[in-house]
């Protein structure tokens, strides 16, 4: 089902007046260094809602080609209310998000940014549309060959960002999309930050389930937190369970646990996101039944001490699971994930029902956004 929304615009005279400097709304000036004062909304139809987040929503849209109506190119359009950005004091963060995606979008495993613009109420980020959606919405069973490929692709994207002086801070399955050919692409740079290799930061952010121990304990942290998050995803792919970090937080420093958590979310807050079972080993019991090379990659990524954790593709290349396997972008792009999926009898979930549900929900966010005003 295609939802056709028609966007209201001012007259050409009003439009010219709106672009005149002394009629520019004050909040437009806040973002004008990155988001141009124009609207491309009339060029697109909204097909469905793709995702809702803390800052805004993402829609699947396609262009309206007057010369060739049958030619429909799909895009992902992220719509962010300025009021939310300003209220959360996140103006610089949204500019960093735009800059980082623009700089890094040429990488094969990162979603490419197409355009940026603003109107009176909203910011718009137009990106390439990645058709097969979120990783675990499409696949929930992973063979060793598919795990190896996806670890490599995610690792290459992370390593590229780190070498560019960027920490991602929100590696999770919802931000890992599958292309038409089932390669991966990282998306959503809303929590990303410019950070030189070797430097540290201290803001507590991310998704609890994928946050490294140093973040949860309120300690300064660096790029190693992204490798921890990759380890959690690998653990989920191999065992369908999460690491029990809660047991580590309870046992750390014995009676001084309270001091460890003084600047971090409370155990009660984390309780709903991490496993409840106490264990001396925070890895799931199912890990014991995995082949030695799969256990090895988990124990090298999910190391509590970030200094001992794998923190580069070069280090990853040296471990057993990648013996005789070249972790190079060109090499991995030449491998067909679909061939692996077919060979190993992996089920792919159809997304039609999921997309229909989100199409039906698209009315609500549009009615709550001042999306159709100039």
From TrEMBL:
PROSITE patterns: PROTEIN_KINASE_DOM (PS50011). The keyword ATP-binding applies. It comes from the Eukaryota. InterPro entries: Kinase-like_dom_sf, Prot_kinase_dom, STKc_AGC. One of its GO terms (molecular function) is protein serine/threonine kinase activity. Keywords: ATP-binding, Kinase, Nucleotide-binding, Serine/threonine-protein kinase, Transferase. The keyword Nucleotide-binding applies. Residues 44-322 form the Protein kinase domain. Gene3D superfamilies: Phosphorylase Kinase, domain 1, Transferase(Phosphotransferase) domain 1. One of its GO terms (biological process) is negative regulation of neuromuscular junction development. GO terms for cellular component: cytosol. This is GH12172. The gene is Dgri\GH12172.
């Amino acid at each position: 089902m295609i939802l056709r929304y028609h966007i209201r615009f001012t007259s050409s005279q009003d439009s010219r007046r709106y672009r005149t400097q002394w009629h520019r709304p004050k909040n437009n000036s806040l973002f004008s260094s990155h988001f141009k004062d124009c609207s491309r909304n009339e060029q697109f139809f909204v097909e469905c809602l793709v995702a809702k987040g803390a800052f805004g929503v993402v829609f699947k849209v396609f262009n309206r080609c007057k010369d060739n109506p049958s030619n429909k190119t799909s895009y992902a359009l992220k719509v962010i209310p300025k009021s939310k950005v300003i209220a959360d004091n996140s103006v610089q963060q949204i500019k960093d998000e735009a800059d980082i995606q623009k700089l890094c979008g040429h990488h094969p495993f990162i979603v490419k940014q197409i355009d940026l613009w603003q109107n009176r109420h909203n910011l718009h980020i137009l990106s390439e549309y990645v058709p097969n959606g979120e990783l675990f919405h499409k696949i929930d069973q992973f063979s060793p060959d598919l795990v190896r490929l996806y670890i490599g692709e995610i690792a290459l994207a992370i390593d590229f960002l780190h070498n560019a002086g960027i920490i991602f801070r929100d590696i999770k399955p919802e931000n890992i999309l599958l292309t038409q050919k089932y390669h991966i692409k990282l998306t959503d740079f809303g929590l990303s930050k410019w950070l030189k290799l070797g430097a540290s930061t201290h803001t507590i952010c991310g998704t609890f389930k994928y946050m490294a121990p140093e973040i949860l304990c309120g300690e300064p942290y660096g790029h190693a937190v992204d490798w921890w998050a990759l380890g959690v995803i690998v653990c989920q792919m191999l065992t369908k369970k999460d690491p029990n970090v809660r047991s580590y937080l309870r046992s750390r420093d014995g009676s001084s646990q309270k001091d460890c958590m003084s600047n971090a979310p409370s155990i009660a807050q984390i309780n709903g996101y991490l496993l409840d079972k106490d264990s001396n080993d925070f890895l799931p019991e199912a890990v014991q039944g995995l082949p030695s090379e799969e256990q090895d990659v988990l124990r090298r990524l999910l190391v509590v001490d970030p200094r001992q954790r794998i923190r580069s593709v070069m280090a990853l290349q040296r471990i057993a699971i990648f013996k005789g396997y070249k972790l190079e972008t060109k090499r991995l792009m030449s491998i067909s994930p679909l061939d692996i999926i077919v060979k190993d009898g992996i089920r792919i979930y159809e997304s039609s029902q999921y997309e229909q549900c989100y199409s039906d929900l698209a009315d609500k966010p549009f009615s709550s956004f001042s999306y159709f005003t100039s």
